[in-house]
Design brief:
single chain, 3 helices, alpha+beta, Alpha-Beta Plaits, four-stranded antiparallel sheet
Length: about 90
Amino acid sequence: MKLLIRNLTRNTTEAELKALFEPFGTVQSCSLVLDKDTGISKGFGFVEMPRIGEAKAAMKNLNGKDVANSKIRVKKAEQKVTKSNTDAAESNE
């Protein structure tokens, strides 16, 4: 399950983010979204956990947690809708 983590401080590292989620289970991947020009974190990122139960436990326990004086928000990441997906849906109507 892919999780979206918001409200991270700009100096949070991927290693710190991964370490936050590892107590709840296996972390398949972890990535911060960076500003293209500066390379500085935009304050949010994604964590993928292969086991749904572990991901839900992490979400429940970490949502609203104070990390580096910032209350993080953790929720299931929405599927990204691509233009080809919307075109296919429109042609089926």
